[in-house]
Write a structure and sequence with these properties.
Helix 8 runs antiparallel to helix 9, helix 9 crosses helix 10 and helix 10 runs antiparallel to helix 12. The strands form two sheets. Strands 1, 2, 3, 4, 7, 8, 9, 10 and 11 form a nine-stranded mixed sheet that branches. Strands 5-6 form a two-stranded antiparallel ribbon. It is globular. It folds into two domains: 194 residues, Beta Polymerase, domain 2 (2-Layer Sandwich), CATH 3.30.460; 120 residues, Poly(a)-polymerase, middle domain. It is α+β, with helices and mostly antiparallel strands. Helices cover 36% and strands 18% of the residues. The longest helix is centred in the last third of the chain and has 18 residues.
């Protein structure tokens, strides 16, 4: 699943060149995944662990699927057939390990690359990363970065627990407020963080099919994340603000001739959020999401999370944010 600015057509820089792809993980035969909430955290930084359990596959073996049962076949027989459980390969203890999963996928890509026709004309260079698989593809003067993230879907919803911290998926954090941990290295290898990137992408795709000029809202987002970069507000903050404005301003008013008015609407919405020190999370607690976006039952009815909670707790951060807004307005 393509996620982030490159796939949503609002790259923060003139050419970001980073394509982030979320690969949903499903348990192999004989295994099940169980999500365990480890930290509710602050401001949408919920952390999960993925517990792996072995399940009996004897009935499937009787149906001629030729599956060895990790629970009821001997280790000697499993060893002869070179069958190893996920607990032995990609887990630490009973929990799926992010770093082991990334290394496993890296080895798969590396060993498979020469079988791909594009390998004759494109050069593949891997980038060091412990919690995702990152590589650069180059062909003459052309180059692009690909980052493969791994995730487990929460039920049948559009919410995943993923290998990278949420802020790392979206872009750099604000200089004065961040809703997510800054360093991926400080997170345990068995920790998977909740991500709303797929739900946000589905919302933008939904909007694109309804606005009179499908690119105006993305042009607004590009103005704030590209032209007005360096003003202290993160790309994830701008994306959240723009999505809220899309939900409040009638879609019929997003025409090219009203482009400047919509820019001021976005500025006005940000000013109100800064004044009350509250920017609500767009997915969690939002009762106005389109029906096509599915949330886990446990998240329905939750109070909207405040992404500006740090501003409410830290007067110095709030003053800095107001100064940044004043500079932004001047620019």
């Amino acid at each position: 699943i393509g996620v982030g600015s490159a796939f949503e057509s609002w790259s923060p820089r003139e050419w970001d060149g980073v394509y982030r792809v979320l690969v949903p993980l499903n348990p192999p035969p004989g295994h099940t995944f169980h999500l365990e909430l480890k930290s509710a955290g602050q401001m949408a930084a919920r952390t999960f662990c993925i517990r792996v359990e072995l399940v009996c596959t004897c009935k499937r073996e009787q149906l001629a699927e030729k599956l060895l049962c990790f629970l009821h076949h001997s280790q000697e027989e499993l060893g002869r057939k070179q069958k190893r459980s996920l607990l032995e390969t990609l887990c630490t203890g009973s929990y799926l390990d992010v770093e082991k999963t990334s290394r496993w996928f890296y080895q798969l890509v590396r060993s498979s690359w020469l079988q791909v026709p594009q390998s004759y004309s494109w050069h593949l260079l891997f980038q060091p990363c412990s919690r995702s698989c990152q590589f650069c593809l180059s062909k003459g003067k052309k180059s692009l970065m690909v980052e493969v993230l791994f995730g487990v879907r929460q039920g049948d919803s559009d919410i995943f627990v993923v290998s990278q911290p949420a802020e790392a998926q979206k872009g750099s954090s604000s200089t004065f407020v961040s809703s997510q941990p800054a360093e991926a290295n400080s997170i345990a290898s068995t920790a998977w963080q909740e991500s709303y990137a797929v739900a946000e992408a589905k919302f933008l795709w939904h909007i694109a099919g309804q606005v009179p000029c499908e690119s105006v809202h993305l042009k607004c987002l590009q103005v704030f994340t590209r032209i007005l970069s360096g003003t202290g507000f993160s790309s994830s903050t701008w994306k959240t603000v723009v999505m809220h404005v899309l939900s409040t301003v009638p879609l019929s008013r997003w025409r090219r001739r009203e482009f400047a008015r919509r820019l001021w609407d976005i500025m006005a919405y940000l000013r109100r959020c800064l004044q009350v020190k509250r920017l609500e999370h767009f997915v969690l607690g939002n009762e106005r999401l389109p029906a096509g976006i599915s949330l886990p039952p446990a998240t329905r009815g939750l109070e909207p999370l405040n992404l500006f909670e740090q501003l409410a707790r830290d007067p110095a951060a709030h003053r800095e944010a107001m100064r940044a807004y004043a500079q932004l307005r001047f620019r």
